[in-house]
Amino acid sequence: MTDPAPASPTSAPGPAAVEVRGVDKVFETRTGQVQALQGIDLAIAPGEFVSLIGPSGCGKSTLMRLIADLDDPTGGTLSVFGKPARQARLDQDYGIAFQQAGLLPWRTVAANVALPLELHGAASADRRDRVARLLDMVGLSDFADRYPDQLSGGMQQRVAIARALAERPRLLLMDEPFGALDEMTREKMQSDLVRISAETGAAVVFVTHSIPEAVFLSDRVVVMSPRPGRIQEIVPMRLGADARRAARTDELREERSFFDMVTAVREALHGGSPVASGARGVENR
Ligand SMILES: Nc1ncnc2c1ncn2[C@@H]1O[C@H](COP(=O)(O)OP(=O)(O)OP(=O)(O)O)[C@@H](O)[C@H]1O
Ligand SMILES: [Mg+2]
C-alpha cells in the first residue's frame, strides 16, 4: 500500500476541507474597534495539514474560532467541506483540541473519550469498541479507568485528542494543543499527531508559536502578521525526497531540509528578509 502524496488545494477532488474567502473580523470594544483579521483568503485541502504561526495577537485563535463557528466573521465567507461553518458544526465535521485539555474531572479517561459518542446516541457496544481503539491509538489503553487528575499534562492532552477524533472528523482544529508541555513530551506528541493524522486522513489546522513544530507537522505553514491580522506568506514545506507525513520521523529533525524550512518560515515571519535573531513572540526551539 502506498500513501497518497501530501494534498494540495489544486489537486484534491471535491470541496476544500476549509475555504476562507475575504474574511474580516472586527471586534467592538469599549475603547473602540479592533480589526483582528483583514482580507483572509485560505483554502485547505482534505487531508492537508496546515499550521498558523505569527506573533501574539495576529488573529490565529480568532480565525480558528470562525472556522469552528464559535464566532461570526464581520465580512467574507467561510465554508467547511463545502458547507457553511454552522452546518459543518451541526454535522460534526470537525473535532477541536485547544491549549487546555478541557477534560471533565469526574469522568474517567474512557468516559471522557466516550462523551461525544454518548451525546450523539451511539450504541453502547459500538461506543466501547470505538473508545478502546481511540485509547490504543493515543497509547493510553492502560489508563482507561484513571481520572484526569491522575494523568500528566501530556497524557491529558492525548485524551483530548482521542476525544476530538471520536466522531471520525474529517477535520481537526487544534489551537496550541502542546503549548503547556515540556520539550521532550512535545516532540513525542508531534510524532504521535503526524502518525494519527496520516492514519485517519483528517485535515488539520494547527496553531503554534514554535517554528520547528510547524515545520515538522505541516504540509504548508501560514505565516500571519498583526494589526490588522493578515496572511503574510504561505510557505509550502519541502522536506527532502520523502515528504509524506507518514514518513516523518525524529530523524527528520536533524536533516538539512528541515533546517532550511525552519529558516524559510523565520524569514517569512520577518517579511522576507534574512534574520539574525528570533522573531518576537515566536519560539525558535
Ligand atoms: N472577544 C474579543 N473582544 C475584543 N477583542 C478581541 C477578542 N478576541 C480577540 N480580540 C483581539 O483580536 C486580536 C487577535 O486575537 P487572537 O486571540 O486571535 O490572537 P492570537 O494570534 O491567537 O494570539 P496568541 O498567539 O497570543 O494566542 C487581538 O488584538 C485581540 O486583543
Ligand atoms: Mg491564540
UniProtKB/TrEMBL annotation:
Residues 18-251 form the ABC transporter domain. Pfam families: ABC_tran (PF00005). SMART domains: AAA. Keywords: ATP-binding, Lipoprotein, Nucleotide-binding, Transport. The keyword Transmembrane does not apply. It comes from the Bacteria. The keyword Transport applies. One of its GO terms (molecular function) is ATP binding. PANTHER family: ABC TRANSPORTER ATP-BINDING PROTEIN, TAURINE IMPORT ATP-BINDING PROTEIN-RELATED. This is Sulfonate ABC transporter ATP-binding lipoprotein. It comes from Agromyces marinus.
